[in-house]
Amino acid sequence: MVAELGPTMEERAFTYDREASFPFENFRDLHERGLLALCVPTAYGGLGAGFADYVRVSEEIGRHCGATALTFNMHIATTLWTGPVADLLTMTDEQRERHERVRTELFRGIVEEGRIHSQPFSEGISPGATSGIATRAVPVDGGFLVTGRKIFASLSGAADFYNVTAQVEGEDVIRFLGVPAMGDGVRIEGTWDPLGMRGTVSRTLVMDGAFVPAEHEWLPPGLYDQAAERYPFLFMSLAPTYLGVTRGICDFTRSYLRGELAGMTTGARRDVPQKQDGWARMQVAYERSRALLLAAADNARVDPSEEQLAQAWAATFNTMETAPEVAAIGVRVCGGQAMLRHLALERMYRDARLGSLMLPWSAEVCLERLGRARLY
């Protein structure tokens, strides 16, 4: 389904990038095909995909429009936390009963109404996006009053819910709360004019006593902490976007070398040995990245071993660093064509460079953890 949407997504991507505007049209198309409910279990009307399935679908979206894939990730992450991952966790009977009631309505809104969920965690006060949480939730009748700010809040102005991490004073657990986008005390601040991934519209979310109904606490208290500890693979869910961007760069370069690229001013270049060498290196890098990432995704399971975690960190780092590597080779191979903004390579080159920054498993975080893994 995504492959069928691909050419349309590629065409729209120019506008989203140039205007730094959200891909509403792409999300509408995804909803019409049931893909916003990709990881919603079939019992609730979704497609029932698991994490490894999501990785493959996300790559295909990223192949055509990186910003759509990155924002799609923020939405799907909530359905993964509350769906297939929650089913792996330990809950009391009371917690399980409550969770079934809460997620039934959560999933209904996605399946029937096309509700879009954002998941802004970063606050800019620590090296990771899930530690040092300053956002506070005060229990009141019927729910919580939430105060705090989340930076890089993707889907700003597009999401129906901003699903945030917060803490109640005196508790040592993280709450996972769905802040209604149109509620009182919720506002979006700042501008959005970044280097790449411009269509994510990741401005700053400010909550000033925003009311969150109790039924919008998407996981029982303490279950987010358990999920993060026992199934941390969701923190690598941004990586397939950049694998897709890498694939898109390869697609562009292949079309260029064959002389089939719409808008190019030269003929085929596939007989030039230097360009064949660059094209060969791009394929090796992409296949390496894809093999590592899919292996890590296919091995994802609850309560991972240190070996499995190390594999996931290495795969994530490699994917994020391979994207700009392949982009740089693509620019060299395509030459002056790479500078033209009416061609896609210039945009994908900028998008690819940003993967290494993506928390919570940024390139630096992955290296830090790998540097200690299996040594102690």
Please summarize what this structure is.
The protein starts with a helix and ends with a helix. The chain has helices at 2-19, 24-32, 51-64, 66-85, 93-113, 223-230, 239-258, 273-298, 306-334, 344-353, 363-372; strands at residues 117-118, 136-140, 143-153, 161-166, 175-180, 186-189, 203-213.
Mind explaining what this structure looks like?
The protein starts with a helix and ends with a helix. The chain is α+β, with helices and mostly antiparallel strands. Helix 3 packs across helix 7, helix 7 packs parallel to helix 9 and helix 9 runs antiparallel to helix 10. Helices cover 49% and strands 12% of the residues. The strands form two sheets. The protein has a four-stranded antiparallel beta sheet, with no helix packed on it. Strands 1-4-5 form a three-stranded mixed beta sheet. The chain has three domains: 115 residues, Orthogonal Bundle (Butyryl-Coa Dehydrogenase, subunit A, domain 1), CATH 1.10.540; 86 residues, Butyryl-CoA Dehydrogenase, subunit A, domain 2, CATH 2.40.110.10; 142 residues, Butyryl-CoA Dehydrogenase, subunit A, domain 3, CATH 1.20.140.10. A hairpin with a 2-residue loop joins strand 2 and strand 3.
